[in-house]
Amino acid sequence: xxxxxxxxxxxxxxxxxxxxxxxxxxxxxxxxxxxxxxxxxxxxxxxxxxxxxxxxxxxxxxxxxxxxxxxxxxxxxxxxxxxxxxxxxxxxxxxxxxxxxxxxxxxxxxxxxxxxxxxxxxxxxxxxxxxxxxxxxxxxxxxxxxxxxxxxxxxxxxxxxxxxxxxxxxxxxxxxxxxxxxxxxxxxxxxxxxxxxxxxxxxxxxxxxxxxxxxxxxxxxxxxxxxxxxxxxxxxxxxxxxxxxxxxxxxxxxxxxxxxxxxxxxxxxxxxxxxxxxxxxxxxxxxxxxxxxxxxxxxxxxxxxxxxxxxxxxxxxxxxxxxxxxxxxxxxxxxxxxxxxxxxxxxxxxxxxxxxxxxxxxxxxxxxxxxxxxxxxxxxxxxxxxxxxxxxxxxxxxxxxxxxxxxxxxxxxxxxxxxxxxxxxxxxxxxxxxxxxxxxxxxxxxxxxxxxxxxxxxxxxxxxxxxxxxxxxxxxxxxxxxxxxxxxxxxxxxxxxxxxxxxxxxxxxxxxxxxxxxxxxxxxxxxxxxxxxxxxxxxxxxxxxxxxxxxxxxxxxxxxxxxxxxxxxxxxxxxxxxxxxxxxxxxxxxxxxxxxxxxxxxxxxxxxxxxxxxxxxxxxxxxxxxxxxxxxxxxxxxxxxxxxxxxxxxxxxxxxxxxxxxxxxxxxxxxxxxx
Length: 675
Fold this sequence. Notes:
mainly alpha, about 60% helix, globular
């Protein structure tokens, strides 16, 4: 109760501020009257609106009333502004100088000594605390000596402070700053707190949803592992206790502490099935409803002609509809509706199309357009739809080279391009556009990339290196390519290590690249890193070394341009949580957003139709012993590929080694020819 009383005045001030904002004037009168009757503290500053405080602060400035001025300053200027905004910091510094020297100007050099000392003590305290941050700035450095100068009025460094023009200029700057800042603070603090709380709750629920989604895919992956192993026993291959332990530990690792999962004896009959039933008992399977249909014509019109804020809100809502949907019929229906209504104008020849939002002057619009394209590219049907636009790939490559590498726009453009590289036609186009050269230059300095960006750059490079045309590009810059890849071998991220191993394994198939690698001591470099790697990475590096020392053939690379038609596995149909991270767009009071915006303003006629699923093929997995030899994307690779260790008996190693020169074994187990 004591804590409540300590903040009671501030809480009452927040309530009154919101009531003023919402126009409850009669309620405000009753609140003030009751607070007075009960002796409750109601801050006087709260009785004055932000706009009314502007003339009061200016009057306090003119009167030299330091105490009143800085009290109003602290109450009405958000700490996030005066602690981080350079304009606010600079202005505050000069205001402290103004009030410290105010008496010297007013009393013609004969001020009250006690009051003058008090003002300079206040100034010194500021210099030692908040003002210390500016001590390294050349502009302000001389003023740190001001409190110690006997007569600053005659000192050459401080004469300007006592001129009327300096005071007038400072007042003008103050009025301009206050008018802009206080106008921006029209949203009451109580509402700001509520919106922040709601955003936090949304992000928390979204993370929980994605965790459940990953558990679901993990369960599917483990099930496939067990089915493959069961099929292997038909041919007489034994399932080892260690393999069963690793699969079960993976299955229950999200529900049990990892140490506990590894200590349970899963080989004892009934243990795994008991735990599986217990885990599944917590998962209530419910019928998932289809979402309402939308008016896509109106949607696309507003995406092209609406305000930047409306465009961003719509792009966000359309993405959320996809990313928060349930995998299966609900998500498939949403994607089918987007595609059949040509939501992104991929089939349009008009100059003003939805895709042109990638070139918007608004950074938020560009970012949210890139996020939506990345979400589309995360799904097989979405990639197929996007690939039908002949200019989109070039647009994304343009944005990749124009946007700041630290921006979320750049990150999502990169993510979309990486997922595009799962399709052969788009691989060929990216190789032809010289994207390998660009990627190698970016990877020279991996420390300037975020974890996501480094993973996706490395994975994109590996995917392009798997193609014969990509290998030819690498053969034209062997030394540069090998040095960049070798510098990434010691990276702590195992996924990056896997992509580097895959790229090395691919380009070392070329004799001239092998010779270059031998000259730079690649085998010694690899063996140096082998000592610090886990068993899986050690086996991959051993395959790379074996490739390095393979028999020389001519440099003629067999083209793979005539290989079979596009095919992608359903396994890579995953929307990673990164698509919705770090939202910069927060709805204002009474503003519609998300699904509510779509169903309130853009409700259409129900047009859902059943979706025909593409036939999938079953088979065996690529051996984890080998470097990656098929295109992958980190969003899938990190959630389903690395976490599922294969049994050594799942596929004979000799069988793989006899086939790897001519065949590629993809994760779904279907073989396909590659160059």
